[in-house]
Amino acid sequence: MTESTMTAAELTAAGRAALIAGDTVTARLRFREALEIDPNYVEALLGMAAAVRPYRDKREYLLRALAIDPNLTEARATLEQVEAKLAAGELLAPTGVQVREQNETAVVTESAEPPALPETETLFCYRHPQRETGLRCISCSRPICPECARATPVGQICPDCARERTPVNYQVGPTQLLIAGIVALLYGVIVTFVAGVVIGWAGFFGFIVAFLLGPMTGNALARLIDWSTGRKRGRLLMIVVSIAYACGSLPYIGLIILLGGFPLVLLFYSIIVVTTALAWLR
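Structure (tokenized):
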């Protein structure tokens, strides 16, 4: 059975098995996939609470689980321990964990101290095996080189863990980028032509018309991108939208230039449209 056809329960079971084996990276991945299928699957929420290291993340997953099922006495007891750790100023759970099975549920208990590394052990970045390093990801404990390290308020994390922490609406795939580009391109073609006609008709008051219409048109473009991409955000999306809109507006602007005109007002209008849309898509 492939991962794409697994149910939330099967993914959670796979995550629990990975957690017992000490593979927290795979465990978090499986639990996260289960939650994508069913965001209210309590066992997956409890699994994530056990697999993540930051106490704030543990608290978040435990609170979500308790909001769904307030009768989880063990989860409530664990939450009290996490709250105590946070109140004491601790941010991360120790890397050394002991995992045991209890009532078919993976339970993680912290060891007194993380296991000490042998003094002679040499670490190499998991993404660049030829690079020696002394850094570890604070979330999954894998060795990382300075190039791979991503700074967070509580320490360095690896690119994979950083990707997991990225909000869903900032996870933009090729499909969303393609859709956004097509929408912005067609929008640029139509809107630039209409705006050119209106601004040309306004004559001396063209700048005023451009100044008034630009923000409204840019806002409409941002809403179209929102609707077509499922409210995605991010720098790459902003770049695609900007380039696509510019390409859409170029034919009409180029035609005016070829006919001997200089569409300064229309260029001013296009800049307002793009900057307004980008302000919404941050």
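The beta strands are 97-102, 105-110, 123-124, 132-133, 135-136, 143-144, 150-152, 155-157. The longest helix spans residues 174-202.
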